[in-house]
Amino acid sequence: MRYRFLILLLIALCALSVQAQSGRRKTQPAPAAPVPTPTPEPTPAPKKEEKTDLLFFIGANRHASYGSYPFSYYDAVIRGCAERLRAGTSASVDITDKDLSRGEAIKKAKSEARSYVVLLTLTFDTLARSYDDLILEFVVFTPGSAKVVTSGRSYQNANRKGPIIVGPTARGAGLYREQLLQQAGEDAGSRILKALNLNVPVMR
C-alpha cells in the first residue's frame, strides 16, 4: 500500500513537471544584426575643360600689293600663323579665306569683345627681284578699340638653320614656295604670342 502511494505520488510529480514545461514560452533567439551595405563612393564628375577667353581672327589683305600672287600663298601664311597660335595657346582661332582689307580688319576688331584681329599681307621689298623676296607683314588689332598691339615683318626661311638650300625646279616651285610662306606664317604667330606675353618654345 505504501509502495502504491509512492508510485502515484511520483506519477503526479512527473505530470506536474511536464505541464510546467509545456506552459513555458519558448525563448526566441534575438535576430541577427543586419549587415550594413557598403555605400559606394560617389563617382567624381569629370572636370570640364576650362575655356580660355583668348580668341584670334586671322585674315589676309589679298589685294594690297601691286603684284598678283596666287591665293594659295595667302592660304599658306594664314595656315602657318593659325597653327602656331593654336599650338602655343588654348585659344580659339578663326580664319577667313576672303579678302580682308585694313579698314575691314579695324571695323572687325571694333565689333569684337574678345577676339584679336590678325591681318596678314604679302609684299615685295623695294629691291625684290623674285618670289624669293616675298615678305609677310602682320598687324594685330585689339578687340573693342582696334589699337595696334603689335606689328612686324616675317621672312621666308625665318625658322631655318644651317646653309641655304637651293629651291627645286619650276615644276615643284609652287609647293616649295607655299612651304616657305607657311614657315613665315608660323614665325609671325610666334612673334604675336611673344608680344602678348604668351611666348612658348618655337616648334620647328
Q: What is the architecture of the domain at 55-160 and 167-195 at the second tier of CATH?
A: 3-Layer(aba) Sandwich
Instruction: List the strand order in the largest sheet.
Output: 2-1-3-4-5
CATH class group of the domain at 55-160 and 167-195: Alpha Beta
Average pLDDT, rounded to a whole number, is 79
Total E-strand runs: 5
Low-confidence parts, pLDDT < 50 over ≥5 residues?
160-172
The run of helices and strands is HEHEHEEEH
Beta content: 15-25%
Quickly give the structural class. alpha/beta
Overall 3D form: rod-shaped
Helical amount among residues, as a percent range?
Answer: 25-40%
- The number of helical runs is 4
Please name the CATH topology of the domain at 55-160 and 167-195: Rossmann fold
Largest sheet, in brief, is: 5 strands, mixed
Query: Gyration radius, to the nearest Å?
Result: 44 Å
Terminal residue distance: 128 Å
Oligomer: single chain
Can you describe this structure?
With 204 residues, this protein is of the alpha/beta class. It has a domain at 55-160 and 167-195: 3-Layer(aba) Sandwich (Rossmann fold). It has 4 helices and 5 strands. It has helices at residues 2-23, 71-88, 102-111, 170-195; strands spanning 55-60, 92-99, 115-124, 134-141, 148-155. Strands 2-1-3-4-5 form a 5-stranded mixed β-sheet, sandwiched between helices. Helix 2 (71-88) links the parallel strand 1 and strand 2. Helix 2 (71-88) packs parallel to helix 4 (170-195). The chain is rod-shaped, with a radius of gyration of 44 Å. The model is unreliable at 160-172 (pLDDT under 50).
